[in-house]
Amino acid sequence: MKPIIVANWKMQFTSEKTLETTKKLLELFKEEKIDPQKIEIIICPSFAALPQAAQLLKNKGIKLGAQDCFWEEKGAFTGEASPSDLKEMGADYVILGHSERRENLAETDEMIHKKIKAALLAKLIPILCVGETFDERQKGVKDYKIINQVTKALEGTEIKPGEQIIVAYEPVWVIGSGQAVAPEEAHYTAKVIEQRIIDLIGFSLTKEASSFIYGGSVDEKNIKDFVTGEISGALVGSASLDPDQFVKLIKSIL
Ligand code: 13P
Hints:
Elements: E1 4-8, H1 15-31, E2 40-44, H2 50-57, E3 63-66, H3 83-89, E4 93-96, H4 99-104, H5 109-121, E5 125-130, H6 134-138, H7 142-154, E6 165-169, H8 183-201, H9 203-209, E7 210-215, H10 223-226, E8 233-236, H11 243-251
Parallel strand pairs: 1-2, 1-8, 2-3, 3-4, 4-5, 5-6, 6-7, 7-8
């Protein structure tokens, strides 16, 4: 399986800066001979920049992702974006349940569950984010929290042949801190998540249709320790904002 590297640009760039950064990245990928056949690179800009970013990325082998979607396709839902609209704009992936949305917008596991179903229906690949807060970790409930998030997001979701789902373990307390968790911890957690998914959808479907990535202060120095074995890739925030740094990060696992 190809490694998966997701750049989550959050709300860090204006549309103009998104285009400038995307152009620079494409130049660097060419210069450094980064072959999209060997690695799945997914760029997730803000909603506003998606159509223009899609134009730039067309036929370049680099994929586009959105940072969220709504759970309905159409209707009186002011301010929301429908999964098929995102697909039509050129997105193939959608990040769901990011801790910043769970925290700032009070997104619940039930909402995330509905979004996953809607995303799959629109042929978007969901990137489900799960992870514990520092407080939950101190209380010793980390695994319980993650198993619960995975269960509530996926229980009752039918994964049809050809559909994919990516689960990202992002410990909330290390996001943006510059200090990732120990790689052993991330690998152990990937196993915990995998076991829960096997219980929910069965062994062969889990192996066929799901992958696990790690996110939280990933950079060009530590990525190699994460992206190996049961962890297929990384969800990168800060280290994806600077094209030179992001390309170094990608090169260090090729
Ligand atoms: P950082 O890489 O800045 O820690 O962000 C991780 C993240 O939240 C990606 O979704």
